[in-house]
Amino acid sequence: MKKLILFISIFTVYSLSFSTLIDKNLYKNLNVPSLDKKVLNRALEGLSEIDIKNKEVITIIDYTKSANEKRLFVIDLKKEKIIFDTYVSHGKNTGGEFAKKFSNNIDSLQSSVGFFKTSNTYMGSNGYSMRLDGLEKGINDNARERNIVIHGAKYATESFINKNGRLGRSWGCPAIPLDLTKDLINSIKGGSIVYINGDLNNYQKKTKFYMNF
Asked: Residues 6 or more apart from 7 whose CB is under 8 A from it?
């Protein structure tokens, strides 16, 4: 009986924390059909369990979609609107048009999945960039050592798709169109959450976050 009461209490706290992030009309208000509602809810469920100050904005990258589709979404949760809806690359060894293989290993040239926190910005070989810290042990916690960052790239554009048949690939970083780099990074830098969706079967077995798959 005590175990049942404890379970109900934990579930109630979880439900309340999740419900404080959004109202039931959020998905409708965002009005972006290319954003999967289940993926949005999965990202928000995880966000509700993460101890972080900036919960007004979240970035979702959906690697279950074709690289030729816009699959990166930056959402202002306070104003309930999409700030950015754009293309994003995946790692060279993760797949061609579709992302299929993910890794947390150094030098794998593959993308990682799960929850990340945005960190410091810097000027590097790819111009204005931002580091990501992986929040999940064994899933993406090598992101800093692997130099997984958000940066701009010429191969992450619609014109590249039109010329080559698909978006270009990175060494594991979520690369975005060059013309959006500064504004997009500045809108999420300094400790907001990035959720990368993909490889759900393996991810579900390892993640510590509640996931309503």
From this structure: none
Single-letter amino acid, residue 196 = I
3-class DSSP assignment, residue 158: helix
Residues 142-180 pLDDT 10s? 999 999 999 999 999 999 999 999 999 999 999 999 999
What is this structure's pTM? 0.89
CATH topology classification for 2-206:
L,D-transpeptidase catalytic domain-like (2.40.440)
Q: Dump pLDDT digits (tens) for 86-116.
A: 999 999 999 999 999 999 999 999 999 999 9
Closest CA to 131 of 145, 155, 147, 113: 147
Tokens of 147: 């130099």
Compute the distance between CA of residue 58 and CA of residue 62 in angstroms, rounded to an integer: 13
Domain boundaries, the chain: 2-206
Q: Are 35 and 60 in contact (CB under 8 A)?
A: yes
CA pair distance 100, 110, nearest whole angstrom? 10
